[in-house]
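Dear U.,

For the methods section draft, I wanted the exact inputs and outputs in one place so we can describe them consistently. I've listed the two proteins in the order they'll appear in the manuscript figures. Please don't edit the token lines directly; just add comments below if something needs changing.

First protein:
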Amino acid sequence: MEGVNQGDVGKYLTLEGFRSDPWGAWNYYKGMVQRALELREHPFYACIHRLVDAGYIKSIITVCVDGALAGVRNVIQVYGDLLKCKCVTCGRVYDTRKLIPSGRFICPYDKAPLKPMITLYGESMPEREWIRAVVEIGCSELLIVLGLDPCEAPINMLPVLAKYHGVKVIVVGYEGNHIGYCADHHIISDPIRTFIDVCRELA
């Protein structure tokens, strides 16, 4: 990525790395935002919009921070939203996209750095979003799991929580881990392609 030493990418996803070099970190985050905006053109996201608008999907819990689901109703971003950033001292919130052209990720009120509103390694996830996810799971009739890393705690326990509440669970793409074991139906195939195919059948 232009302007970023590839050896520094990992550190920019840590809280310590951001604090030590916020301007270098923003060079990396700007690339993430650009990729997120490009992702919106992918058929997968168009399918999500259609299924939500048609009432097939009531809510979405995502670990993605790229903002590609912006505009979709009832999206729970458990790790935050890259398209928003916040002053590290006064807490004012800004639209990341509006700041990219100038490259000035500084709060105009107190001149402190702005931090993207995402959970970096070394931080706790937003408590409000986690509570929303847990409540939503408990109120659901059906949970479809797409592309969830079975090692990514505590998110990987949400399918287990769903089963505890008697929710039917469909897992797409995983085999031989606890996510697959707790599924009522397990579809071993590419999650993105399967989702797009289902959307076309329902359309």
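Second protein (the one for the lower panel):
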Amino acid sequence: MPFEIAVAQAQVAGYETPLLAIALPRGNLPASLEALDQGTAGALARVFSSGDFSGKKDEVAVIYPSGPAARVLLVGLGTTEEIDRAGIRRAAAVTAKRARALGVPRAGFHLPAEVRGQVSVAEASQAIAEGLAQGAWQFNEMKRRDEDSKKPQLDRVDILISDSTNDSGEGRRLGEAIGAGQTFARSIQVLPGNVCTPSYLANVARELAQRHGFEITVLDRSAITKEKMGALLSVAARKSRASSPWSTRERKVPRSSWSGRASPSIPAASRSSRPRTWRT
């Protein structure tokens, strides 16, 4: 089942979920979380006062309160000066990774409005969606099944907001598209050379072009020579002498282009008015 990210208008206190993640800066518990703290019988405030969690960047604490949220995950953002799009993206990625480790099928992520700083709602939603996609990704296709593989897979994370706004939905959509593109590329990048041959990569590019409706041209050896891609030819020649699947007859380069026409089926993050070339 593909990983899904959604925006949910809901109050954090009372939200029912296997895992509720809260991104927090260094300092005191934000005022907007007082109701959540009361719902956990003061567990959040106690974690801060005990020093077990201070909000340092990448710091995490898991609380098992009584209430609708089976677990509350606190994720540190660092100091207020460190809170930017990259920091928010990182906190979301940490959340998704921890959710995978815990084996929960779904989760909620909340960034309190008062800790967002100069980051807009749309920018924050985009950064959260990107980070969640990055943290949720893992490559299991060529791994032996073990005990961890029996845990439920993380299928969905809701970005929790208190007020409905189109900006958060648009930011989520763009961030999810960017995240999907990144995980798609990572899934190819980790493949061994005897699987991800030039012909394999060319076929993947063809399928991608067909799915999203842009043009694709695969350059064979003669076309590569005509384009004067000498570095590519020399590398392939050395590998062919070592009986590599990247042999002389396998030299191929997929090149795609998009005409610039609007298409609602293509995410904005995947659109480009310039040709793209992947050199293998």
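Candidate sentences for the figure legend, describing the second protein: Residues 72 and 148 are 21 Å apart (CA to CA). The chain has two domains: 4-189, 198-277.

Thanks,
Y.
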